[in-house]
Amino acid sequence: MIDIEICLACDHSGDVAKQVKAAFAGGAIRVELCSQMAQEGLTPSFDAMVIAKAAAQKGQQLLSMIRPRGGDFCYDASDIQQMQRDIVLAAQAGMHGVVLGVLKQNNTLDMSNLKSLLALAEKSNLTVTFHRAFDALTEPEQAITTLIDLGVKRILTSGVAWGSSDKAVQHIDRLEHYLKIANGNIEIVIGGGITASSARQISGQIARSAYYSFHAHSSALSHGSVHIDRVKELYQGVNDTWPPLDV
């Protein structure tokens, strides 16, 4: 089974519960909560996380974006302090994991701040996904091994340089290269314009034994909200069974 992760915009708390339920009912294995999708996703409010947790059933995984501002991924001391506070709040709200990334100005991993954030996440019993800051790295291949050694659970990537308008489906060879380096030691979450059609095309070329999943946002929406039918289309695009075995 190939897992589906849905990115859910939760700026309006009134429809968070409905969207969370739709995502999981449609077959998603995880839901990532974000705010401000116009800025590529920022940290959601504590209230939104609490509402999402109440809407989810036991075992359904909720992740919270930890990104204090838009723009680059090079953070000063005040940004890092805010990220630390938000990690603690995510744990208090009952999240299963957090999604983050920190880089230096030369687009290499900011090891000092990354280690401190990872330590706090581990202390808070939260898994960590390294988000698409990965696609801004000058040497992403080397970073895969480093992130494995640091205990990061997942890497979200499109196989496309950050800032490019290309979609993941245009760079399947690079994604396959990343998966080969990862060698099953870290989950590669494939995002970037994922639709039922493009997910089917990508999964058709990548070995079924590879350790990966898909991350989608826009294609899961109907009239601006996550809809069960759109998520179901994504799930069935790459899986032969219905309903999902683990939902």
Give the structure's gist in a few sentences.
With 247 residues, the protein is α/β, with parallel strands linked by helices. It has helices at residues 16-25, 46-55, 77-92, 111-123, 140-150, 172-182, 196-205, 228-238, and strands spanning 3-9, 30-34, 61-65, 97-100, 127-130, 154-157, 187-190, 212-216, 221-222, 225-226.
Describe the protein's topology.
Blueprint: E1 3-9, H1 16-25, E2 30-34, H2 46-55, E3 61-65, H3 77-92, E4 97-100, H4 111-123, E5 127-130, H5 140-150, E6 154-157, H6 172-182, E7 187-190, H7 196-205, E8 212-216, E9 221-222, E10 225-226, H8 228-238
Parallel strand pairs: 1-2, 1-8, 2-3, 3-4, 4-5, 5-6, 6-7, 7-8
Antiparallel strand pairs: 9-10
What does this structure look like?
The chain has 247 residues and is of the alpha/beta class. It has a single domain, classed as Copper homeostasis (CutC) domain (TIM Barrel, Alpha-Beta Barrel), CATH 3.20.20. Helices cover 37% and strands 17% of the residues. α7 packs parallel to α8. The chain is globular, with a radius of gyration of 17 Å.
Beta-strand proportion: 15-25%
Structural class: alpha/beta
What is the top-level CATH class?
Alpha Beta
Number of helical segments with 4 or more residues: 8
Rg, please?
Answer: 17 Å
Mean pLDDT: 95
CATH superfamily: Copper homeostasis (CutC) domain
Tell me the number of strands: 10
Strand order of the largest sheet: 1-2-3-4-5-6-7-8
- Mind telling me which CATH architecture this is? Alpha-Beta Barrel
Largest sheet: 8 strands, parallel, barrel
The rounded distance between the terminal residues' Cα atoms is 12 Å
Shape: globular
Low-confidence stretches: none
Helix/strand order: EHEHEHEHEHEHEHEEEH
